[in-house]
Amino acid sequence: MAADRMGPGDHACLGFRGHDDRWAVRAAFTLAGFARGERVVIFTGRGTSAPEALDRLTAHGVPAERFVHSGQLTLSRGSPGYDPVTGAFDPAARTAVLAAGSAESRRRGFTGMRVAADMAWAAGLAPGELASYEADLTPRFARTGFTAICEYDRAVFPAPLLDRMTAAHPLAVLPSVDAFHADRAGPRLRLVGTADLATRTDVTLALRAAFATDPPPTHLDLTPLSFLDAHCAAALLRLPPPLTLHCTPAQHRILHICDPAALDHLTIEVTAPRAVPG
User: Fold this and answer.
1) Residue 143 three-state SS
2) Three-state secondary structure of 110-122
3) 3-state DSSP assignment of residue 276
4) Would the N or C end of the chain have less CB density within 10 A of its end CB?
5) pLDDT at position 277
6) Using CA atoms in the order 95, 75, 151, 278, what is the torsion angle rounded to 10 degrees?
């Protein structure tokens, strides 16, 4: 899933390699929260100062200083529930801090709360303890509409451990804002990320591979895409029927602009964006 498509109740894992990409993902996640009227909290990790965090977000188009002053953005180097001196971790204490922050956000008039949290502090925990904590958060977040990205540095967490942490989350965030991914489940093919100039080759290859199978997909879900450009939209309209395209209203407009006649050969199901909770 692209970070800016995350909505209330989503709990996702981000396995990242480069800090520049990580800050770009944080910025997209933050701006999406602002657009929803949510309060955003970023636990940056102990190695990041507040001025550096402000500079990083600002470089990615977030008016961070203004939103910090308004109280809609909080930057913290802390790790609630974890004692860096003893290495002890209290899952209940961490969960309580997040729950209290979410309740406070709503009392202050925000529609909800979203958090991006550096997880480097957890590198020394037992894998089972960490995986259990992550799995227990998912139903809590779903009930409260809390939105969270748990950030795991691939340079800190070995691949087997990161795979286990990813499996403990219902969602995985694409590690770059200009990344693209396609996944198939039975007759349904989902396109995730961005479909634009930077990813056109990836989009073309993914579609070619999927529609070369027997049987090919009969449902193509575009709704996880953060961006769909005209070139990629035109390529989608050339796919062979029978095919049902699941898209957002904005994506439907792009498809119609590209070739309204081609839409007659496809089944279009337009899905409204998820509503912002009041």
Assistant:
1) helix
2) CCCEEEEEECHHH
3) coil
4) C
5) 42
6) 60
